[in-house]
Automatic annotation (TrEMBL):
It is found in: Cell membrane. This is Olfactory receptor. CDD domains: 7tmA_OR4-like (cd15226). Coiled coil: none annotated. PANTHER family: OLFACTORY RECEPTOR (PTHR48002). It holds the Pfam family 7tm_4. One of its GO terms (cellular component) is plasma membrane. The lineage of its organism: Eukaryota, Metazoa, Chordata, Craniata, Vertebrata. GO terms for molecular function: G protein-coupled receptor activity; olfactory receptor activity. Residues 42-288 form the G-protein coupled receptors family 1 profile domain.
């Protein structure tokens, strides 16, 4: 708190949002509520299915469930405030709130990035070293991957925010987006931010670009490997791979664009930031479940289990009720 207010004479930022038209804002409000609800339900469904269905207890699905967990966190950093902001005329956020938003955005974003790489390694071993899969992708390896993802997220965000938190802000304080985005906020500081800008370009832009290129190369190698095998045997693997490639492109595409050229302020940036913070978490469950027979089967089992439980409870209630009325009648009669 103190560091923030010491050298800044403004206490809040004003967010411009996506549009100034009232009708369009209400339209965004309704759409975003529905999308956010779908994000929560879809990703929770994946986490619950993987946790409770032993058919899905394999490294690939554990990683997928953890990705869904990251998606839940990432979309919850800014979306609830963004939604309620659509109904406000003056959208403000405190200096502190802004810093917290950026911290967690990059924390979960960096974590998700590392997890996508772990998922690629998992598929690479499965396709290119199938005989060693069981010995390489052990439970310990999975735990290492998960811990690394959280650590990368933490180091990534701390390395940038450590220098951002102390920046002096003395106006203007208008952020042309729906939530605080690192390049936009750094530009508002009333000091020379050249070194910090370079740091952000290297830390966010270059990192995501390098990861993206490495991922594309490794997925290409996997596709070529599959192509050399007989096609019928590998069509399941192929559909898994295309799902992964779609998600990787959806996540890294906008991130590369925003952080590759962060200080040029294109007006499309705010729409792109909607993309990786809301659209990708929304699409992930759809992409992974619609094309995946095992996932669909697991969800069916989950539903039928639920119905069986529901029936049992109903039966028990009816039984108690009947017993109760019978004993009352019994008492009445005698
Ligand atoms: C993440 O993966 C681990 C396996 O290492 C698993 O035990 C855990 O349930 C997963 N987390 C979630 C939220 O599904």
């Amino acid at each position: 708190m103190d560091i923030l207010n010491k050298n800044s004479n403004i206490s809040e930022f004003i967010l411009l949002g996506l549009s100034s038209s009232r009708e369009i804002q209400i339209c965004f409000f309704v759409t975003l509520i529905l999308v956010y609800a779908a994000i929560i339900v879809g990703n929770l469904l994946i986490v619950v299915s993987v946790m409770f269905d032993h058919h899905l207890h394999s490294p690939m699905y554990f990683l997928l469930a953890n990705l869904s967990f990251f998606d839940l966190c990432l979309s919850s950093v800014a979306t609830p405030k963004v939604i309620s902001d659509f109904l406000r005329k003056r959208k403000t956020i405190s200096l502190w709130g802004c810093m917290v938003q950026m911290f967690f955005m990059h924390f979960f974003g960096g974590g998700e990035m590392s997890l996508l790489i772990a998922m690629a390694i998992d598929r690479y071993v499965a396709i290119c070293k199938p005989l060693h899969y069981k010995t390489i992708m052990t439970h310990r390896m999975l735990t290492v991957f998960l811990l690394l993802s959280w650590a990368v997220g933490l180091i990534h965000t701390t390395s940038q925010m450590a220098f951002t938190v102390g920046l002096p802000f003395c106006g203007p304080n208008v952020v042309d987006s729906i939530f605080c985005d690192l390049p936009l906020v750094i530009k508002l500081a009333c000091t020379d931010t050249y070194v910090l800008e370079l740091l952000v370009i290297a830390d966010s832009g270059l990192l995501s670009l390098v990861c993206f290129i490495l991922l594309l190369i490794s997925y290409t190698i996997m596709l070529v490997t599959l192509w050399h095998h007989s096609f019928s045997a590998s069509s399941k693997a192929l559909s898994t791979l295309t799902a992964h490639i779609t998600v990787v492109t959806l996540f890294f595409g906008p991130a590369n664009f925003i952080y590759g050229f962060p200080f040029n302020s294109y007006s499309v940036d705010k729409f792109l930031s909607v993309f990786y913070s809301i659209i990708t978490p929304f699409l992930n469950p759809i992409i992974y479940t619609l094309r995946n027979q095992e996932m669909k089967a697991a969800m069916k089992r989950l539903r039928s289990q639920h119905i069986v439980k529901h029936r049992r409870v109903t039966k028990a209630v009816v039984f108690l009720f009947i017993n109760n009325t019978q004993s009352k009648q019994f008492k009445k009669q005698y």
